[in-house]
Amino acid sequence: MLVLLDLLVIAVITAATWSAPRLARPTLPFGVRIPAARATDPEIQASHRRHGHRVLAIGAVAAVTLLGTWLWTDWAPSPELTLLPVVAASVLCGLLAAGEVRKTKQEKDFNAGTRSANTADVGLRTNPVRLPWPWLTPALLITATTAALALSQGHTLAPVTAQLLLITLVLLTTAGILRARPEIDPERPAGSARRYRVYLAGLARLLLASAACADASLLVNALRQWGMLADSGWVTALAYLPLGVALVGWVYFAVRVGEAGHRLPAEAGEEEAAPLRRDDDRYWHAAGMVYVNRRDPALLVHRRVGMFWTLNLGNPLAWTVVGAVVVLATLSSLGVVDLPS
Q: Which residues of 113-146 are buried (b: 16+ CB within 10 A; e: fewer)?
């Protein structure tokens, strides 16, 4: 059974790493910004192919090594031990591809014939996307059900505390994302601003729905711990089912809407791409996953890779947040702070 879980972990990581660049914005291959007209450059496409081949090779080697070890020694590592080397190798593949794209961009002078520009959508400030409060209702109902069952049966309220902490964290994250600096394409500012608004609205609903799914999993686990459900494989599968539903929702959103809404169709009469560029490559590191800009007051910025936001590590407040998380994690590991699980 353990070896099957390990193979599943390898398959999921390989599939996610292989598909991520193909779902990414065409103007940001591996976190490097290029003009839209250069997205189909043969060297850029070759970098995509080489990255895909490397990722598939790593997945195949990991699977064969795992099966060979298991057949020879009858031992299989835990999924956590399998996860680390495969993720590390996948990250290295991304960094290598980013270096190739950056080199191609410099050698072919992709920015020739363009001019630097900064764009902003004032409408997202004066009329921001609102927090979709009705989508919070399922999570609150599930939490209320958990609390009612715990109180009626005299059980601990730790699962309820975990659910409330999760809801609070998701609410704060969603509110921060909705107020973060919008991600506008300088080549198509009006069209990208419209798509980004649709993207934000959908992402906010998806985050709150995912909180409800996670709370449902916590409820099933609580019922199992309280002895109200049998500790069986079917119950374990039931506990993971809501998380699976949430995962399917995220995959569908990534394919249908895409990062910053780039996969949404253009409207009739939308502006043509202008010869503009944003000179911010020097602030992005680790293939578009780390942002450091001391002159940018923004705390949260949309990552260049994936449907995620990241802290601007050039902002002193970001290090305050990082420090608080590290302190809390350290105190929890030492048993000084007891976080619900």
A: ebeeeebebeebeeeebebbeebbebbeebbeeb
Query: pTM for the complete prediction?
Result: 0.85
Q: Per-residue confidence of the chain (341 residues) as pLDDT tens digits?
A: 677 888 888 999 999 999 999 999 998 999 999 988 899 999 999 999 999 999 999 999 999 988 888 888 888 777 777 888 999 999 999 999 999 999 999 999 988 877 776 666 667 777 889 999 999 999 999 999 999 999 998 898 989 999 999 999 999 999 999 988 888 887 788 888 899 999 999 999 999 999 999 999 999 999 999 989 888 878 888 999 999 999 999 999 999 999 999 999 887 777 666 666 667 888 999 888 999 999 888 899 999 888 889 999 999 999 998 888 888 777 666 655 445 44
Q: Is 161 exposed, middle or buried (0-12, 13-18, 19+ CB in 10 A)?
A: middle
The set of residues, in sequence order, having a beta carbon less than 8 Å from that of 312 and lying 6+ positions away, is 291, 292, 293, 296, 298, 299, 300, 301, 318
> For 87, how many CA atoms within 13 A lie in the half-sphere containing its CB?
8
Instruction: Give phi and psi for 203, each to the nearest 5.
Output: -65, -40
Residue pair 68/83 in contact (Cβ under 8 Å)? The answer is no
Q: And the tokens for 164?
A: 């409330």
176/181 Cα distance (integer angstroms): 10
Taking Cα atoms as reference points, which of 307, 114, 102, 133 lies closest to residue 203?
Answer: 307
Q: Using alpha carbons, select from 273, 296, 279 the residue that is nearest to residue 115.
A: 279
In terms of Cα–Cα distance, which of 140, 112, 89 is closest to 41? 112
- H-state helical runs in the chain: 2-23, 42-73, 79-107, 123-126, 137-153, 158-179, 189-225, 233-256, 316-333
Candidates 70, 97, 96; CA nearest to 82 is: 70
